[in-house]
Specification:
There is one protein chain. This protein is of the alpha+beta class. Helices cover 49% and strands 11% of the residues. The strands form 7 sheets. It has a 4-stranded mixed beta sheet, with helices on both faces. Strands 18-17-19-20 form a 4-stranded mixed beta sheet. It has a 3-stranded antiparallel beta sheet with strand order 7-8-9. The radius of gyration is 26 Å and the shape is globular.
Amino acid sequence: MANRLTGQSSAYLRQHADNPVDWQPFDAAAFAEAARRDVPVFLSVGYAACHWCHVMAHESFEDPEVGAYLNEHFVPVKVDREERPDVDATYMVATQLITRQGGWPMSAFLTPDGRAFHAGTYFPARPAHGMPSFRQVLEAVATAWSTRRDELEQAADTVARAIAGQAEDLRSALAGAAVTVPASGEPEEDGPDLASAALDVLLADEDPAHGGFGGAPKFPPSTVLLLLERLAAGGAPRTADRARGLLGRTLGAMCGSALFDHVGGGFHRYSVTREWSLPHYEKMLYDNAQLLRACARAAVADPGAGHARAAADTAGFLLAELRLPGGAFASSLDADTVSADGDVHSGEGAFYVWSRSELREVLGADRGTAVADLMGVAAGAPQPLHPGRVLGGADQALWDDARPELAAARSRRPAPARDDKVVAGWNGMTVTALAEAGVLLEDPALVLAAEEAAAHLWAVHWDASRRSLARTSHAGSAERSIEGLLEDYAMVAEGFLALYRATGATPWYERARELADVAAERFSHPGPDGGPERVWSDLADVPAPLLAAGSSGRAEPLDDVTPAGTAVLAAVLVELWALEEDEHRLGAVPALLGPLELLARRSPRSAGRALAVRAELGSAPAHVVLAGGTAEDKLAARRAVGPAAVLSTRVVDADAPGAPGSARGKAALGGRFTVYVCRDFACRAPVHSVAELQEQLAGADPLS
């Protein structure tokens, strides 16, 4: 079979379309070909921004001799882990079981039905550091396949059973630890204080010297930031103070470090060092969407801490460097820089680093030296900018003066490659972040950008006839062969609800509701005992090779670099419940949130989003419902609500076609502009002016 990667939506796959390897996408045809020829499948998994993926491609996959050997003895299959996280997750478990380590590029050898029997990560072109060369690995596997087939089949069976057993062990360990979600939205009076328990663990895990959690490598703790923000805003006083402090220290450590691109804005993927001083230079859409949202929310609570500047710079990066024609956002920027000879894997981080001499050359001797000292650039080789703190005062003025000149100089360097693949779920998170940031930072351009990205998702990714959401698209064309995962449906729905909060436009609410309904149909199934509780899956249909490999397709309950799809869908259902005043939406929430008591006390970073949803359920829904009046009246009312419109209070236009159920029965009294301030589905006496609305909002309790 010829190489079939031309025209794929993934830039990572297209990068391999001209290899001498006859790469196939992960589909039924590839495995059927392996069965027909009775040869193993060589599965290579990576992503476009992966440095070592580029190295292995250059050293081995571009080698005609290696390509010829692969084609003769294997069916080579190439997978973009961002496009197919289901494939990546299953075979990463296999790789870790076989080798006790994991990473990318992932290299796995499979039987023709999909079971893994041997695996590794990066293999060098020549033996080095105790590692065999890639060619030696291929020859050893091919020989074993022809001479010791029974042993390989037994190994494949063992790995498949271990994958299935590992998932079952996790479910068993978590069984019985789920928290009951009260239908009223009120917490149980004698229930466990999960938020406080989780906060205790997070504070114990905090790195007191450098911020964040754990040692090196150190990743942004994106999925717990929303939990900390919610506890800081609405927890008991002691809990709120501790959460506010932890959130501020964590964001401050990242925003003042080399993890943040101080010239162009936005965050790199992680730090190689504990003190955030040396980033791994990829820039991922999912990181920047989550951190933009966190910084924008923190800016409201702590206006003087520099969070608003970090949020604005991150939003600026998204619009300038990841936004695509049509309004959607690309997946990532590469860690590497394309060199003059077209070598894509050279110059890791070269676009971002500076030497003292380069700074003096651009800024002049005195200013260049001052900026080098400010940004932690020591003598020697080029380094990332690492001030080690959030700047302020004269330091900020010095940096503001120098930054445009450095940005202009940097723009003349060879730029990192961009993966123009559009991932539905990550774009949904970006819509949420931009819509919220636009309101909180008072920047309407960000809300408009969110609307344009959301319009792309609805026009390109959503197939109305099939009621199906494609996970990826490229150049305005959806990859219909890859349906969205649960996380895609949930994150896009959440983005649409964020736009409804920001704009009041009911089509976004209606589209979110449809996505949530389809997700419930597509990704939940009756439990094995036939009871009312549904079992959730991350996939609508599990491919046969993954079933053979040991995957059940059951939903992953834990957060990773992005929140668990189940937790995001739970957040969507809670929001729909509040908007519609329909408690049936809460029926699925307990199963979606899962074993929060156990996770809160042992590993809250694995369940940050679910814990944030649970914390939200502990506060009664708040609404401001508008009826009658002019467009100007309603705009003035929305402005009076201010940041609360996206943080805590839903503003509903009762006159809009398709308005949610919370508007039911709320009309313009006497034909006048009428405003209802409501909490927990009960309303105060209606008022007829923005001034009266402001008086009610100023009260500690809108019903007092």
